[in-house]
């Protein structure tokens, strides 16, 4: 029997595996993908000091370290069920059953979609799909594309696609319906963009950085006077006053129909036009992928700032279910660095609970490190992350 | 039209000397490289439609590229329902796209 | 824009219009919508559209999301061949 099985070989899973194995725990890591790294593999961005954060290198380093500690890896293996018994877990996969004393679910996040007419056509893909295609497989998602959805993830990946030599028409909004009330509102989107001012070197973006929620009249002014053709970040027009109405094509994507929208997101009749593209990326944001926790007895909490439903857990990454742990984006959408720091906490907690941990300050130190990483994160996915985290810690005490 | 293969990149290391491999898709022979997935190999060869919807025959391709959506499922060497995005391409692989299925119990069908 | 043309559940091809219409008509839960339309019940297990169905229902009924997951997860969370259940 394994002492610890980890589902997910991303930043959280890998660093948890290392932390646990360093303390003598015997660890197996399972992942559906053919190589380690999870979402690290696509990531590529410039830090404020000008140094590039290269997720591929990061993943390789973590994997090499894991190998040194004799951690077992099962790639191309899908877990379809986990079941708690009195003193072990059954982990059912398409490659057979694994048994383990402790289980860490580090399955990361999945992408929200933005349904619109034509989105099932071949050539329409999630923004993460395009990222993996370009940065992991070194194949461009297409020759000339457009991105629907303006948010931190889409702007970061747009830049990555540009670096890979992909032509991008622009980043635009989705047209408004019940599913994207906020993401289709130029005003709301602008407020969020303003908080990213440090990422994009454009004068109006910088000006946006001075805005606060209270200065809504200034925001309206800026949104009203926002140029229809957008502001460019790294040469890519970001058009908060334009929306895609429909994706066009017979057998595959051939173009999109766009229209100008009012500051409140209403389509302005007569402004419709067709743009030729051969691929479309949909950027709806991320949500914690909790399905494996959903088949256990672990309770959930709905916390919008963390990305939706998240499993109840404490700062030590323990859930209320005995010997069930979580780490990384399954606990809330944050940067890879936070996920990695959380993974270490989870690995140490497992080592502690299996009576292997010698250094009893190690967990506290690792918990502090998570907070430090959170505070220093270049990209804050949500301004209220700390509030969300506190709410979750409160819930873990009452459970 | 120019290849979709990324040959140079300002930050990432792109290996130029990866061995080529051949595979078959719906009866035709194509070339890609070791390390490609079925999904990246087909995209590289300009193939976007990986299957059609079983009932309506609407064309489908890669959507999530990380195994969540199951839109890219294909038959590989006679094993059905393999996700193209999670399956490493191998030399000599025989791949078939999913087809429309008969729906004899549904009203309104011929 | 024709709301009939917006597909919500890609696996079962259920439209935005149908989900909105049935939710308004029956004022029902997302689970009932799932059972009535097969949305979120297809091959992918609802990974792509379960949140969309939940969100439409929550908007129409004006009910904020609760802590409990509305469309519960059931094993297997990935499609598996019958032989893995022990049969032939």
UniProtKB/TrEMBL annotation, chain A:
Domain FAD/NAD(P)-binding, by residue range, is 3-165, 232-343
UniProt-recorded Gene Ontology molecular function terms: oxidoreductase activity
Give a single Pfam family match: Pyr_redox_2
Give the protein name, as stated in the record: FAD-dependent oxidoreductase
Domain of life of the organism in this record? Answer: Bacteria
Q: Which InterPro entries match?
A: FAD/NAD-bd_sf, FAD/NAD-binding_dom, Metab_Enz_Cyan_OpOx_G3PDH
Q: Which Gene3D superfamilies match?
A: FAD/NAD(P)-binding domain
**Which keywords does this Swiss-Prot/TrEMBL entry list?**
Oxidoreductase
Automatic annotation (TrEMBL), chain B:
Entry's Gene Ontology molecular function annotations? iron-sulfur cluster binding; oxidoreductase activity
Q: Report the leader peptide range.
A: none
**Domain of life per record:** Bacteria
Sorted alphabetically, the keyword list is: Oxidoreductase
Q: Which InterPro entries match?
A: 2Fe-2S-bd_N (IPR042204), 2Fe-2S_ferredoxin-like_sf (IPR036010), 2Fe-2S_ferredoxin-type (IPR001041)
Q: What is this protein called?
A: (2Fe-2S)-binding protein
* Source organism of this protein record: Terrihalobacillus insolitus
UniProtKB/TrEMBL annotation, chain C:
What the entry lists under InterPro entries is as follows: BFD-like_2Fe2S-bd_dom, BFD-like_2Fe2S-bd_dom_sf
Domain BFD-like [2Fe-2S]-binding per the UniProt entry, residue ranges: 7-58
What Gene3D superfamilies has UniProt attached to this entry? BFD-like [2Fe-2S]-binding domain (1.10.10.1100)
The superkingdom of the source organism is Bacteria
Q: Name one Pfam family in it.
A: Fer2_BFD
Q: What is this protein called?
A: (2Fe-2S)-binding protein
**What is the scientific name of the source organism?**
Terrihalobacillus insolitus
């Amino acid at each position: 029997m394994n002492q610890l099985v980890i589902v997910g070989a991303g930043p959280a899973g890998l660093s948890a595996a290392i932390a646990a194995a360093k303390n003598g725990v015997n660890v197996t890591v399972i992942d559906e993908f053919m190589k380690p790294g999870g979402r690290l593999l696509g990531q590529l961005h410039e830090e404020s000091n000008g140094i590039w954060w290269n997720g591929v290198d990061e993943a390789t380093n973590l994997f090499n370290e894991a190998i040194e500690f004799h951690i077992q890896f099962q790639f191309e293996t899908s877990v379809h069920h986990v079941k708690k018994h009195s003193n072990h877990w059954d982990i059912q996969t398409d490659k057979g059953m694994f048994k383990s004393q402790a289980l860490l679910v580090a399955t990361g996040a999945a992408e929200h979609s933005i349904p619109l007419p034509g989105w099932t056509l071949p050539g329409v893909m999630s923004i993460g799909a395009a990222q993996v295609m370009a940065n992991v497989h070194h194949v461009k998602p297409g020759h000339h594309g457009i991105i629907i959805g303006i948010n931190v993830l889409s702007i970061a990946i747009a830049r990555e696609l540009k670096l890979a030599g992909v032509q991008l028409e622009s980043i635009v909004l989705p047209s408004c319906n019940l599913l994207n009330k906020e993401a289709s509102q130029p005003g709301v989107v602008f407020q969020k963009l303003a908080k990213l001012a440090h990422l994009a070197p454009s004068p109006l973006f910088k000006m946006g950085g001075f805005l606060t929620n209270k200065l809504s009249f200034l925001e309206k002014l800026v949104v009203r006077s926002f140029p229809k053709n957008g502001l460019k970040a790294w040469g890519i027009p970001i058009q908060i006053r334009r929306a895609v109405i429909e994706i066009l094509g017979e057998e595959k994507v051939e173009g999109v129909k766009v229209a100008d929208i009012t500051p409140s997101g209403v389509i302005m009749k007569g402004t419709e036009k067709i743009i030729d593209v051969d691929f479309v990326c949909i950027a709806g944001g991320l949500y914690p992928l909790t399905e494996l926790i959903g088949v256990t007895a672990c309770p959930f909490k709905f916390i919008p700032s963390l990305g939706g439903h998240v499993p109840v857990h404490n700062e030590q990454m323990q859930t209320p279910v005995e010997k069930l742990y979580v780490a990384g984006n399954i606990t809330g959408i944050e940067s890879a660095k936070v996920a990695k720091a959380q993974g270490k906490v989870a690995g140490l907690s497992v080592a502690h609970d299996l009576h292997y941990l010698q250094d009893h300050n190690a967990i506290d130190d690792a918990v502090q490190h998570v907070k430090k990483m959170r505070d220093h994160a270049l990209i804050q996915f949500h301004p209220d992350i700390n509030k969300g985290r506190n709410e979750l810690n409160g819930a873990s005490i009452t459970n | 039209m120019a290849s979709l293969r990324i040959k140079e990149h300002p930050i990432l290391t792109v290996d130029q000397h990866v061995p080529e491999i051949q595979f078959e898709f719906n009866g035709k022979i194509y070339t890609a490289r070791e390390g490609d997935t079925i999904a990246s190999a087909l995209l590289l060869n300009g193939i976007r439609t990986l299957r059609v919807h079983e009932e309506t025959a609407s064309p489908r391709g890669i959507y999530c590229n990380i195994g969540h959506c199951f839109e890219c499922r294909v038959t590989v060497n006679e094993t059905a329902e393999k996700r193209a995005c999670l399956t490493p391409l191998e030399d000599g692989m025989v791949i078939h796209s999913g087809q429309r299925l008969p729906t004899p119990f549904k009203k309104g069908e011929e | 824009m024709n709301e009939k043309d917006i597909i919500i559940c890609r696996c079962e091809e259920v439209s935005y219009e149908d989900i909105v219409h049935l939710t308004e008509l029956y004022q029902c839960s997302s689970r009932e919508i799932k059972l009535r339309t097969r949305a979120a019940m297809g091959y992918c297990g609802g990974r792509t559209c379960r949140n969309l169905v939940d969100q439409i229902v929550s908007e129409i009924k004006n009910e904020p999301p609760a802590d409990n997951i509305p469309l519960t997860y059931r094993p297997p969370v990935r499609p598996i061949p019958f032989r893995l259940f022990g049969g032939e």
